[in-house]
Automatic annotation (TrEMBL):
The chain crosses the membrane at residues 6-23, 35-55. The active site is at E346. Zn(2+) binds at H345, H349, D420. It comes from Sporanaerobacter acetigenes DSM 13106. SUPFAM superfamilies: FtsH protease domain-like (SSF140990), P-loop containing nucleoside triphosphate hydrolases (SSF52540). One of its GO terms (cellular component) is plasma membrane. This is ATP-dependent zinc metalloprotease FtsH. The lineage of its organism: Bacteria, Bacillati, Bacillota, Tissierellia, Tissierellales. Its cofactor is Zn(2+). Homohexamer. Residues 118-254 form the AAA+ ATPase domain.
């Protein structure tokens, strides 16, 4: 805007000066007698140039959105990635499922003879960090296809028509450069369910996407791959066969997949001979591929920080703590009374979890990390896909045991159980609303009924958590001597390993009572 004003002022000044010079040419005065004809011509020429430049500047719609004057393709620069299935560890079932699509792109004639059509769309859904983008790149790499990447948010604009135009541009480009893979990450940004309250521009963008996916020419080998963390948010029209024909769940890896992922991410790292990838995989239950990659990288950084030539077991253990529990707080200013409370709290968790055998306790610590003043690292002894009601109740009992220990020892409770109560409440809610494990019977309750029957559901959840809390109180009362032993050791050395915890329990084996 400032530039335009300046050009305008120079143009006006030039016009005024040119007018005077033109007048002086035919009606000479003494004012401009020193100006030659060459000077006059130069001033007239410069004035003309500035006027033309100003007119061109003015014809540019300055109030138009930047996206219209500098239109995106709706995708990043086309690329043929070098990624292949060799770079994707684990996910063997998914890779096998995608082989058909890859073979169709590479050898489309044999499928066309049988009247088969290429799947138009593949939708990857699941938690973040599980390898959805990597899988899409691998499909493009295996087929030597053009990989067109776009994020769902790139199509969302407040200006009407921009998102729809970007969708058209993206699909036109894909058809020109076939065979090609269109990958739309976070597709829920444009594919969310339509309703009366939704944004008109977003609806137009979604309608254009639906039209483009329907309008594919069967002779063109173009496959669209979408990725989302929230399948439940997507519009039904987007999910139907003919658009996204295949829905593939990409979940967190199991122990075998975690081993393969860790092997990939430690290939170029110097490891000590005593490191067991299986043991690390066992300690990282429930973590995604991205988190495992982060652990391997953190272990390498820690080893460099300590001036080591190789990464050892301690580096990996510290990296796991760093990722799961957060950054260690150096020189924390914690009162002695608070430290004792944290020691009792964490000892309560460890004691009850050990007795009920809900999870294997890996480490207990009262060294602050992140926002936590202390923590207990636990992981299951084996991969589990089904949980009984008794096991879920035991998990809740272990979660509320920290607060129960505070109540028994100090006669009052603190704010330290915030995260424990959140997790316990979530399990209790799933037991009542999803698993039919309450007095309401074998029913599943959706969100609508949860909102309208909250008091009834809340009462059922409270009963479950209260029962678990009473059980935790009983277990701790019966094994108070072990609780104090663990807490005293924590106060001395600030952390206890699983081996040290086993030694403590061996001393009191005859006295350790288990209440169920």
């Amino acid at each position: 805007m400032q530039k335009k004003k300046m050009i305008f002022a120079i143009s006006i000044l030039g016009i005024v000066l040119s007018s005077f010079l033109f007048y002086d040419k035919y009606f000479p005065t003494n004012i401009f007698h020193h100006i030659t004809n060459g000077d006059r011509f130069l001033i007239w020429a410069l004035t003309t140039i500035f006027i033309i430049y100003y007119i061109q500047l003015d014809s540019n719609p300055q109030l138009a959105p930047l996206a219209l004057s500098n239109e995106k393709d709706g995708a990043k620069e086309n690329d043929k990635p070098n990624t292949s299935f060799r770079d994707v560890a684990g996910l063997e079932e998914i890779k096998e499922e995608l082989q058909e699509t890859i073979d169709f792109i590479n050898n489309s004639q044999k499928y066309t003879k049988m009247g088969a059509k290429i799947p138009k769309g593949i939708l990857f859904y699941g938690p973040p960090g599980t390898g959805k983008t990597l899988l899409a790149k691998a499909v493009a790499g295996e087929t030597d296809s053009t990989f067109l990447y776009a994020s769902g948010s790139e199509f969302v604009e407040k200006y009407v028509g921009v998102g729809a135009k970007r969708v058209r541009t993206l699909f036109e480009k894909a058809k020109k450069e076939a065979p090609s893979i269109i990958f739309i990450d976070e597709i829920d940004a444009i594919g969310a369910k339509r309703n009366l309250d939704s944004n008109n521009e977003k609806d137009q963008t979604l309608n254009q996407l639906l039209a483009e996916m329907d309008g594919f020419n069967t002779s063109e080998t173009v496959v669209i791959i979408g990725a989302t963390n929230r399948l439940d948010l997507l519009d039904e029209a987007l999910l139907r066969p003919g658009r996204f024909d295949r829905h593939i769940y990409v979940g967190n890896p199991n122990i075998k997949a975690r081993e393969k992922i860790l092997e990939v991410h430690t290939t170029n790292k110097p490891l000590c001979k005593d490191i067991s990838i299986h043991e690390i995989a066992n300690k990282t239950h429930g973590l995604s591929g991205a988190e495992l990659a982060n652990i391997a990288n953190e272990a390498a950084i820690i080893a460099v920080r300590k001036n080591k030539n190789k990464i050892d077991k301690d580096d990996f253990n510290e990296a796991i703590e760093r990722v799961l529990a957060g950054l260690e707080v150096k020189n924390p200013s914690i009162l002695l009374k608070e430290k004792k409370t944290v020691a009792i709290h964490e000892s309560g968790h460890a004691l009850v979890s050990k007795i009920l055998k809900t999870d294997m306790v890996q480490k207990i610590s009262i060294i602050p990390r992140g926002q936590a003043l202390g923590y207990v690292l636990k992981f299951p002894e084996e991969e589990r896909y089904l949980m009984t009601k008794k096991e879920l109740m035991s998990k809740i009992t272990g979660l509320v045991a920290g607060r129960a220990a505070e109540q028994i020892v100090f006669g009052e409770i603190t704010t330290g159980a915030k995260d424990d109560l959140t997790k316990a409440t979530q399990i209790a809610q799933e037991m009542v609303c999803s698993y039919g494990m309450s007095s309401l019977g074998n029913i599943s309750i959706d969100e609508y009924y949860v909102k309208n029957s909250f008091n009834i559901i809340r009462e059922e959840m409270r009963k479950i958590i209260d029962e678990c809390y009473e059980n935790a109180i009983k277990i701790i009362e019966d094994n108070k001597i072990i609780l104090f032993h663990i807490a005293d050791l924590l106060m001395k050395q600030e952390s206890i390993t699983s081996e040290e915890l086993d030694e403590i329990f061996k001393q009191y084996e005859s006295n350790a009572n288990c209440a169920t």
